[in-house]
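Appendix C: a fully annotated inverse folding record. The material below is reproduced so that readers can follow the format used throughout the book. The structure is listed first as tokens, followed by the designed sequence.
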């Protein structure tokens, strides 16, 4: 069955890219279009517009009822568990200035922090009669300022997910916490005699001060034990010995921003705050004299790239050459005139480079260069050198020590795999994460782990890693937990529970207490006593209550004012002007780029139906991941959208559907993590392909030598981009509703000359033209307008609306038919 027959606007023939380019060149002024199909006016698109809502609903069946329960189980739990929940036993503090008596039906707000890949974002959680129902940003937390992202908004659904791990299991059989504690007591006695020589503890990235202190005490008792931190995002960020500094940006102070493959608005620990700061300089008001300007160079169109005033599609391997050419142009360390050869002499690159370099030099001390976390350390070092040379350090950016305890996750994981293969690991404790699924394919983590005598897992789900462990302990959701976590800037947030663990979940700090021989201590006691030991001035109870009320401890962020680039960074910047991989990529054919998925991230949200159905910010795809490539590359390879491609890389092969993305770099293919799960849950199992199967520890960012082969197959993909489109004839054949120029745009100079210019493009219709009388508004009138100069299309509002109203999901098949139920659509 073709994709057209399934209600999809897909095409069966390759687009005529030459005709599309000619059409764009002939356009007068900006052209706005939903898709390449609409721009090309293809026959398939016209047919789709005419038939979009003509599918008859299928007759109800048992399969459909099962699908309903599969997709809606967590939403049902969210809506109906008020009588089945209880609040934590310990004292929690609501986020109100003067606590009032509990009133049934009146919500209370509590401050806490949501950890993601080790870093926290301050949030306020709405609670109805002891049941958390909604997450918002904490307006006083410096990493939030009242805003949130899609993962915080959707985290409430994960809390009520019935697919979560619900019971302690031992080798597949139901057990309990006391039996686990008993076995760990025996294991501890054995490890004490061996000084921990066979003990390895694997966690995801940790910034929690109380957990770090607990680990330090345990390692002091068992000096032969080792603590390894790994998650795929941190592994890419710190895969090699790079600058031992954490860059903290002040985008509200920057007039000129240069992004070197950095999606600082869409991802990363500081993206929520950075979005607020960036938007502050984009919110144009009458009489305003300045606005920031953004330059972006990247291989795949990102949220940050979509906001750029000047954007350059560039292969990921060429970003270092661009960075060194930029350094050469502004007179910074790491620059080299020969580096521009790595750009291939492209005229667009030269123009972008000249404009960015000139703008940065004109705004010394008020510009900033940002290197992406999926770029190698050399790019970060050169960016630091440029910021230092232009006087940006201390104003728009400052550098501080890393917030996390581990420095090289990839190298540490590689050493752990070697030790497991060598039989040196007797007891492996895995706290969080999912390394069996998301570790690099070349390490063979699962095979190595199978050689460990006893494997213990604390996990939120019975996932791929839990499936291969002897003990599985249900992990508490952050809304059920006591703890602490640092934000991107070092601010310490306190995590307090809003509800007792629904499934008896435990926290990582409790498991470490068991290993330390102190199994009776609760997470609340461990966290509170740690902070009692750290608080040496004033009354501790007052400090603790204020910290719970605010959700964070003030003045704990990284100290600003670091003005010198580290010696390691300077040495890295002065190395060979162009890395070998950058030079070789010009002759190596296609390049493979790895990225986390925009809505599923690294795979930890695969079973969240809200996020599965949220259209991804750029492609507007749902319920799948794809292989992105540029129109030019697709044309050269003869690839159509939805063609199933065989991707062969470093001796490994996966099959992925193709998706053509304007703005993508040529000769490059981007794949996305998070899909292809086998033990995600009823929602996430079997969706998409597993990009980790191609990922290697040696080249975690990108690599050359990708081979692409068409398989001849096609798949149906659920994309909302062309839904509710209006054809050339408009509604009713009048043609009036097509190309109405509903988007008004201009330059900042135009706005300064005439702030009312958008209203003059299309004057209002003459009075009396409408057959209906004007409505007379009395009192308040509701309305909504979106400032497109500020909106980044991150979809946080889409998920927030779904969470607020518990809007159901409909599944991939219904999205294909245009029946998604989001109230907000971007």
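Designed amino acids, in order:
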């Amino acid at each position: 069955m073709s994709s057209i027959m399934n209600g999809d606007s897909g095409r069966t023939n390759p687009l005529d890219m030459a005709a599309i380019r000619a059409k764009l060149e002939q356009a007068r002024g900006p052209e706005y279009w939903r898709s390449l199909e609409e721009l090309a006016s293809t026959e398939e698109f016209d047919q789709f517009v005419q038939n979009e809502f003509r599918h008859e609903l299928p007759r109800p069946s048992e399969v459909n009822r099962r699908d309903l329960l599969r997709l809606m189980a967590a939403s049902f739990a969210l809506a109906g568990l008020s009588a089945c929940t209880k609040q934590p036993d310990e004292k929690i503090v609501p986020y109100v200035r003067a606590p009032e008596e509990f009133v049934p039906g009146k919500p209370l707000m509590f401050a806490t922090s949501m950890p993601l890949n080790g870093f926290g974002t301050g949030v306020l959680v709405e609670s109805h009669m002891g049941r958390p129902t909604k997450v918002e940003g904490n307006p006083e937390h410096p990493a939030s300022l009242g805003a949130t992202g899609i993962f915080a908004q959707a985290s409430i659904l994960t809390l009520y997910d019935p697919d979560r791990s619900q019971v302690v299991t031992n080798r597949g059989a139901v057990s309990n916490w006391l039996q686990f504690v008993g076995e760990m007591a025996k294991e501890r006695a054995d490890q004490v005699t061996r000084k921990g020589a066979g003990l390895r503890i694997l966690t995801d990235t940790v910034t929690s001060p109380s957990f770090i202190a607990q680990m330090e005490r345990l390692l002091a008792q068992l000096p032969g034990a080792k603590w390894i931190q790994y998650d795929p995002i941190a592994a890419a960020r710190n895969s090699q010995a790079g600058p031992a500094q954490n860059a903290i940006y002040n985008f509200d102070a920057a007039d000129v921003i240069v992004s070197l493959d950095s999606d600082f608005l869409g991802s990363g620990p500081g993206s929520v705050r950075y979005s607020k700061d960036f938007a502050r300089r984009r919110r144009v008001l009458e009489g305003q004299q300045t606005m920031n300007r953004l330059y972006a160079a990247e291989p795949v169109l990102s949220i940050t790239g979509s906001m750029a005033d000047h954007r350059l599609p560039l292969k990921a391997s060429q970003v270092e050459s661009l960075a060194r050419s930029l350094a050469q142009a502004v007179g910074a360390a790491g620059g080299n005139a020969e580096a521009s050869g790595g750009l291939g002499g492209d005229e667009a690159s030269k123009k972008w480079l000249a404009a960015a370099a000139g703008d940065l030099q004109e705004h010394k001390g008020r510009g900033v260069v940002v290197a992406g976390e999926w770029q190698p350390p050399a790019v970060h070092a050169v960016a630091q050198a440029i910021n230092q040379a232009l006087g940006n350090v201390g104003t728009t950016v400052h550098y501080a020590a890393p917030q996390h305890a581990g420095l090289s996750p990839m190298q540490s994981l590689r050493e752990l795999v070697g030790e497991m293969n060598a039989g040196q690991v007797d007891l492996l404790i895995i706290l969080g994460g999912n390394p069996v699924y998301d570790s690099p394919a070349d390490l063979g983590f699962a095979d190595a782990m199978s050689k460990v005598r006893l494997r213990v897992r604390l996990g939120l789900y019975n996932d791929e890693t839990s499936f291969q462990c002897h003990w599985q302990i249900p992990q508490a959701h952050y809304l059920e937990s006591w703890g602490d976590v640092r934000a991107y800037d070092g601010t310490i947030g306190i995590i307090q529970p809003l509800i007792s663990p629904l499934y008896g979940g435990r926290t990582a700090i409790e498991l470490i207490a068991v290993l330390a021989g102190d199994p009776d201590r609760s997470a609340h006691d461990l966290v509170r006593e740690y902070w009692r030991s750290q608080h040496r001035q004033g009354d501790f109870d007052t400090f603790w209550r204020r910290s719970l009320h605010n959700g964070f401890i003030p003045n704990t962020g990284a100290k600003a004012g670091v003005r010198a680039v580290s010696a390691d960074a300077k040495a890295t910047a002065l190395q060979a002007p162009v890395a070998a991989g950058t030079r070789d990529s010009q002759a190596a054919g296609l390049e493979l780029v790895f990225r986390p998925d925009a809505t599923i991230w690294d795979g930890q949200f695969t079973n969240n139906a809200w996020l599965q159905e949220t259209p991804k910010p750029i492609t507007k795809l749902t319920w799948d991941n794809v292989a992105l490539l540029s129109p030019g590359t697709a044309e050269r390879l003869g690839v159509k959208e939805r063609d199933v491609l065989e991707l062969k890389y470093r001796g490994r092969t996966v099959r992925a559907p193709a998706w053509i993305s304007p703005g993508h770099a040529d000769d490059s293919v981007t794949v996305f993590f998070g899909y292809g799960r086998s033990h995600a849950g009823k929602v996430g199992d079997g969706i998409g392909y597993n990009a980790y199967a191609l990922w290697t520890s040696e080249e975690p960012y990108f690599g050359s030598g990708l081979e692409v082969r068409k398989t001849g197959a096609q798949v149906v993909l659920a994309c909302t981009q062309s839904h509710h489109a209006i054809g050339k004839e408009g509604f009713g054949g009048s043609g009036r509703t097509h190309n109405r120029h509903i988007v008004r745009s201009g330059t900042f100079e135009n706005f300064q000359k005439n702030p009312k210019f958008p209203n003059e493009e299309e004057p209002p219709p003459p009075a009396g033209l409408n057959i209906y009388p004007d409505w007379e508004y009395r009192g308040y009138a509701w309305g909504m307008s979106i400032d497109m100069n500020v909106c980044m299309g991150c979809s946080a509002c889409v998920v927030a609306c779904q969470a607020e109203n518990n809007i159901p999901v409909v599944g991939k098949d219904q999205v294909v038919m245009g029946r998604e139920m989001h109230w907000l659509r971007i």
